[in-house]
Amino acid sequence: MNFSLDRSKQTTLLILLLAVAGLAGINFAVKNIKPVELEIGAIEESMEGKLVKIAGRIDYIKKTSSGNLYWTVNDGTNITVPILDGKFKQLPAKRGDTVEVVGLVTKYKGEMEVMPKEIQVG
Amino acid sequence: MLLFTAIGVLLGLGVGFIPGFSSNNLSMLFITSGLVSSNYYLAVTAVAIEISNSFFEFLSPMIFGIGNEATALAVDPVYEGISEESFNRGISIIVSGGLVGILISLPLLFFADKIYPLFYSSLKPLVGWILLFLCAYMVWIERGWKKIFSAVIFCMSGLLGLMIKDSGLISADYSLLPIFIGLYGFSSLLSKRSEKKELIQDITFLEKANAAAKAFASSMLASLIPGMKRGQISAIALQAGGVMKREEVLFILPAISLAFATLSILVLGTTGNVRSSLAYDVQEVMGELYFSQTVLFVSVIAITACMSSCILVILAKPLGKIMSRVDGKYLKILGFCVCSFLVVNFTGFYGIILAFTATCIGILSKKLGIRSTHLMGVLMLPTIVSVML
Q1: Are A3 and A46 contained in the same domain?
Q2: Of the four, A75, A92, B246, B275, which is 20 to 30 A from A61 by CA?
Q3: Do A62 and A21 fall within a single domain?
Q4: Which phi and psi (to 5°) does residue B347 adopt?
Q5: Residue B206: strand, helix, or coil
């Protein structure tokens, strides 16, 4: 049986392998990305889309009619942490609790927020 | 108002020549600069910047072969040994597409308050399924092995989009830049093209009407879903449109940009929901819109479109002459340098990896003879996943 490929097919196969390797590399990088630990006051617009880690006390919890929660986390400066994901809504967090939040910096209606990916209470 | 509209048009023109720079960044910069104290004039200028850029942003794919998410699909149709005649015809198709985009969405000004709530409640639960069906349909209409190849290309680019979405790997402002430069920029620049120059042809009234209907339907659908961008809408329209001539693609892209911009202002005015960066700018400055203000901003869109069309048509002649005289090889080198600079400067190491992977997927699609719309999986798959989950 002859498995030889012509030059064009070899190039296509090589490019396919490179694309798969690139996807694997990006997946690895995304899985291993380390959040930047910082104080809430240091969060600014230019950081939108960055993964950060903040810590503070829950000052206020707002619950909307759709069941979403909005925590106001304070470490001397306030920031909103929207709790839209079901798994975080189950957390036993209440006003006054200290939390550590790892999430993406986002902007909603002109206000900076941290969209959580991981939360630790207490 | 006319003065501030004209200022916005000129700023939009300037940004149109800078590949990779978003007009939204400029309009936000303008809003926050404090240069204009009146909120009303600030919003008018921001609208004019974004609308005029919807026309001028096509200069970058035509000159450098670099498209953003809204114009990437125009790179292949226009960037190949373009002649003066083709350049002028391309510009005239883009201009007519943009103007038709506004015209088809204007009548909704009087019905939006009745139509939108109705559509919103009945269509919203189905949006994810509609998008999934369109993508599956596009793969299905391919022939033979191309069915499998196009599904693979769609999934690979979709995976790239899913991995990068909300990953925090690079700044959200620029996360799509290296991907689009790779999928549509580098891959076009690096692929061997046929030496045969194909002139851009005129399109018939029927083709225009057909493309306009698709632009309107996809913009309507998109204006119901939060977070949809022009790139996704273009992908929807082209997926739904089946096989389209490149002239139709050139017509439909600006039609979508302008129809979506107009509809997003109508949605903001009637429901208070923000559906585009343009509507976001207006809401940031003006807050809630009254009906009279909605009419006013739609008028600003129409005036800006007319001004931009005139400028673009005037610019087409000298630009076309220059383009036809410059050796295509030098333009390719220039395009390559600009692309590389943008990726390295704005997105760093991870951006290079993203651009490399996207380039491989882009070249792969060309080698397998797959239509470039399948590469829009990069936007479609993450949208389907976020709408359905």
Answers
A1: no
A2: B275
A3: no
A4: -125, -5
A5: helix
8 Å CB contact of B173 and A49: yes
User: In chain B, which residue's Cα lies nearest the Cα of A33?
Assistant: B169
Contacts of B162 (CB under 8 A, 6+ apart): B381, B382, B385
Q: Map tokens 């993406």 to a residue.
A: A104
CA dist., res. B365 & res. B344, Å (int): 24
Q: What is the pTM of this model?
A: 0.75
Range of the domain at A65: 36-121
Residues of B in contact with A46 (CB under 8 A): 171
Assign B248 to helix, strand or coil.
helix
CA distances from A54 to A75, B72, B118, B162, B292 (A): 9, 37, 42, 25, 44
**Which among A19, A33, A50 has CB closest to B361?**
A19
Between CA B138 and CA B161 the distance in angstroms is: 19
Same domain for A56 and A80: yes
Residues from chain A contacting residue B378 (CB–CB below 8 Å): none
Closest alpha carbon to B179 in B347, B386, B366: B347
Query: Does A58 score more than 90 pLDDT?
Result: yes
Which chain B residues have a beta carbon less than 8 Å from that of A16?
Answer: 360, 364
**Residues A58 and A112 placed together within one structural domain of the fold:** yes
Q: Considering only CB atoms, which chain A residues are within 8 Å of B42?
A: none
ipTM, two decimals, is: 0.77
Q: Please state the domain count of chain A.
A: 2
Q: Name chain A contacts of B350, Cβ cutoff 8 Å.
A: 26, 29
Beta strands in chain B (DSSP E): none
Residue matched to tokens 């939009």: B12
Residue A49: which CATH number?
Answer: 2.40.50.140
Q: Do A19 and B173 touch (CB under 8 A)?
A: no
pLDDT by residue (tens digit) across B154-193? 999 999 999 988 788 887 777 888 888 888 778 877 876 5
Whole-number pLDDT of residue B77 = 56
Provide the pLDDT for residue A99.
93
DSSP B84-98: HHHHHHHHHHHHHHH
- CB-based contact B163 A19, cutoff 8 Å: no
Strand locations in chain A (E): 36-37, 51-63, 69-74, 78-83, 98-108, 111-121
Element (H, E) at B380: helix B377-388
Is B156–A19 a contact, with Cβ atoms under 8 angstroms apart? Answer: yes
Question: Cα separation of B157 and B161, whole Å?
Answer: 6
**Does A68 lie in the same domain as A93?**
yes
User: Domain check: are A40 and A25 in the same one?
Assistant: no
One domain, residues A15 and A42: no
Residue in the structure block whose two tokens are 């003065």: B3
Nearest to B357 among A12, A23, A33 (CB): A23
Same domain, A40 and A67: yes
